[in-house]
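[stage:ingest] chain + small molecule (zinc ion)
[stage:ingest] validated
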Amino acid sequence: MKDFLIAPSILSADFARLGEDVDRVLAAGADVVHFDVMDNHYVPNLTFGAPICKALRDYGITAPIDVHLMVKPVDRIIPDFAKAGASMITFHAEASEHVDRSLQLIKEHGCQAGLVFNPATPLHYLDHVMDKLDMILLMSVNPGFGGQSFIPGTLDKLREVRRRIDESGRDIRLEIDGGVKVDNIREIAEAGADMFVAGSAIFGQPDYKTVIDEMRAELSK
Ligand code: DX5
Ligand code: ZN
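[stage:predict] done
[stage:export] tokens:
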């Protein structure tokens, strides 16, 4: 089976018992912790910052933490997350004044780096930075909230990004975020994604393992 990663978004976790809930979802078979940082400026919602990421590390979470920055400005918060234990840091192309500099900053701080594209963000931001990318994250909803529906037009965009990654010959993860469920994950994988963020689909069910197993079963069909 292809190397697919399932990354539960802790935006839908129980914030009052965050450490326990993250432990539970990892024990249920999740690969990566997706950590949604919202600033009530770039996106119309507010979540958590680097101290919470550090708290998860201090609590004993050793799985990769995938920090999705929905903030503007981008650069000054990158070192904080690297120090707090982030493994990967992604940011929105149009939220950075200097995309190349932000990518370099992430890598200088020892994390994997990625660019995020909103549903309506053009892909031309990729043109000159493919060599600096470890991952590309396509949003399949408009950022800011969990529990929204997958925007179907994202599938064509996924195919286009998959083509560009394959053409580049580089080992770049293609992550999809928003509205991913058991009943659409296979179609999304067929369009080229290999890393799947899912918030409400996983944390909205009492038994995380059942959902994650069902997702993997769909991916192995
Ligand atoms: C949205 C966030 C997502 C969100 C996904 O801005 O980036 O990670 O939590 O939630 P679901 O899976 O519920 O669409
Ligand atoms: Zn996210």
